[in-house]
Design a protein that fits this description.
16% strand; four-stranded mixed β-sheet; single chain; seven-stranded mixed β-sheet; 2 domains; 15 strands; Aspartate Aminotransferase, domain 2; binds pyridoxal-5'-phosphate; alpha/beta; Aspartate Aminotransferase, domain 1
């Protein structure tokens, strides 16, 4: 069993003193990492099934990305890319366009920034001031993105918000309308037309509907196949833009480069970040030439498309393609689902196992199906002591988002530790 060592304790104490805002739910002080394994400053090793919150899809310490960043560092660390040009960010933008089929890109440094750019673009393009987002959604914590976010309500209450109306996501395991799929005819989506457009925000005032293809922070909620198609129909018929937040679900995590591809839906604007930088801060907002036609200077930043992030991002995307990480995510995801399914038979606390590719959530429940909030925390803590990094989502969901390069043996080892952790709670 891993115990926090002296060095970890010292750093945690100092961390707490100077950076009080950060959550730090788990006492892990990392030092270095390789593949799917993370090492702490006291020499303990951990199998990482969280991939630094779905960032390290390519695995840790990827030589190709390291070499690309180092080579760029030797040449030039930074240029004023918003005033001059450079080939590296142009190559990255071209690559993103080729991989997604979109024509225009705005580069930034984080998920929230990619969302802010998408919101501004939609407001600018439609000249409307309102948006629709979903309960349990997470889109970031800057003020615009926070207006869309609904999964962390307690963080919102002190801050001014843009005009955003929230509505039900298709959380079928706990249907907010008390209906059952497929008999429900996904009534959660039709509420937008039946109620929201009539009583809260008219289509003429709605710039966009913003949606996560699979809700991440809100609890790894996978909507039924028609959900996004219906949203798209509503957007098209009412001349409203559809913004897909692929920040957690993109980068081949679900098998496809963009999770929306699994639903056969093309959003008007897409936000990407996390995994596309391979660990280097990078965000991207993508759209068509028609929509992203704002004049230069309407939106800009200092570090978006900076040389190091662009070099890292380009190498990451090339690595993802050359190693067929999409196929790997689908194959390993099926295997992990099967293993989790086997555990479900033995452990009724595992109320629901859901996901796509290697974006899988396990909802832990009490006997009466209430969320097993404390047991979820305990399981994660015990798993960490056993050498497995897991992270929570929603009220009582454990997310399984390992690097896409994970091996079957590592999945098996992770399952052993997870089961042991479950047995002890
Ligand atoms: C779907 C989604 N959107 C936006 C964000 C915000 O990204 P960042 O923390 O880089 O600002 C996150 C972060 O978890 C996310 O999961």
């Amino acid at each position: 069993m891993r115990r926090i060592g002296d060095r970890s304790q010292d750093i945690l104490r100092r961390d707490d003193k100077v950076m009080p805002l950060l959550t730090r739910s788990f006492e892990l002080v990392v030092d270095h990492a390789e593949g799917s394994t993370v090492y702490d400053v006291d020499g303990n090793s951990y199998l990482d099934f969280a991939a630094s919150v779905a960032v390290m899809n390519i695995g840790y310490n990827c030589k190709k990305v390291k070499d690309a960043v180092c080579a760029q560092m030797e040449k030039m660390v930074h240029c004023a890319f918003s005033d001059f040009s450079a080939e590296m960010p142009v190559k990255l933008a071209e690559k993103l366009c080729r991989m997604t089929g979109y024509e225009k890109v705005f580069l930034s440094n984080s998920g929230a920034e990619a969302v802010e750019a998408a919101m501004k673009l939609a407001f600018w393009r439609t000249r409307r001031k309102g948006m629709i987002a979903f309960y349990q959604a997470f889109h970031g914590r800057t003020l615009g993105a926070l207006s869309l976010t609904s999964s962390k309500v307690r963080h919102k209450e002190y801050f001014p918000s843009l005009p955003v109306v929230h509505t039900h996501y298709a959380y079928c395991y706990r249907c907010p309308l008390n209906l059952e799929y497929p008999g429900c005819s996904i009534a959660c989506v039709s509420e937008i037309e039946r109620i929201i457009f009539k009583r809260e925000l008219s289509p003429a005032d709605t710039a966009a509907i913003v949606v996560e293809p699979i809700q991440g922070e809100g609890g790894f909620i996978v909507p039924p196949p028609e959900f996004h198609k219906e949203l798209k129909r509503i957007c098209t018929e009412n001349d409203v833009l559809l913004i897909a937040d692929e920040i957690q679900s993109g980068g081949f995590r679900t098998g496809k480069f963009m999770a929306m591809e699994n639903f056969d839906v093309r959003a008007d604007i897409v936000c990407m970040s996390k995994s596309i930088g391979g660990g280097v801060p990078l965000g991207a907002t993508l759209s068509s030439s028609e929509i992203m036609s704002w004049p230069p200077g309407t939106h800009a930043n200092t570090f978006g498309g900076n040389l190091l992030a662009a070099a890292g991002g380009l190498a990451t995307l090339e690595f993802m393609e050359s190693k067929k990480l999409g196929e790997k995510a689908a194959e390993k995801g099926r295997y992990l689902m099967k293993r989790l399914g086997e555990l479900t038979e033995k452990h009724p606390i595992m109320g629901d196992v859901r996901g796509m590719g290697l974006m899988i959530g396990v909802e832990l429940v009490e006997e009466n199906k209430d969320p097993a909030v404390e047991k979820c925390k305990m399981t994660i803590k015990r798993a960490l002591e056993g050498g497995l990094i897991l992270l929570p989502a929603g009220d009582s969901v454990i997310r399984f988002v390992p690097p896409l390069i994970i091996s079957k043996d590592e999945i098996d080892r992770g399952m052993e530790i997870f089961e042991h952790a479950l047995k002890g709670i």
